[in-house]
Design goal:
The chain contains five helices and no strands. By secondary structure, the protein is an all-alpha fold. The chain is globular and about 45 Å long.
Length: 94
């Protein structure tokens, strides 16, 4: 087992915990964190979003999608935007 699969599994279980406690926005947040660790979590995404839409409605579904996209953009920001990378201390270029 690779070192990051433990963290991915932890966030997936946390996502399921929040979803069973009727907190779909926290479930979306933890699933997005899990997706940022390992891409295999994308397989769970349609099932979670379908359950959110079925049990909580369209507005909550759109909020969940917005949370997932926002977390992914925030995680990717140092790699796609140079000033953020410099602010965080990454050296870009040669």
């Amino acid at each position: 087992m690779a070192y990051n699969e433990n963290f991915t599994t932890f966030y997936i279980v946390l996502c399921l915990f929040f979803f069973t406690r009727q907190q779909p926005l926290l479930a979306a947040l933890t699933l997005s964190v899990s997706m940022s660790i390992k891409g295999g979590t994308v397989i769970i995404l349609p099932a979670l979003l379908g359950c959110v839409h079925y049990s909580h409605g369209t507005i909550t579904l759109l909020k969940s999608v917005l949370i997932i996209i926002s977390v992914q953009v925030i995680v990717a920001l140092p790699f796609i935007y140079d000033p953020v990378a410099r602010l965080l201390g990454f050296k870009m270029g040669a």
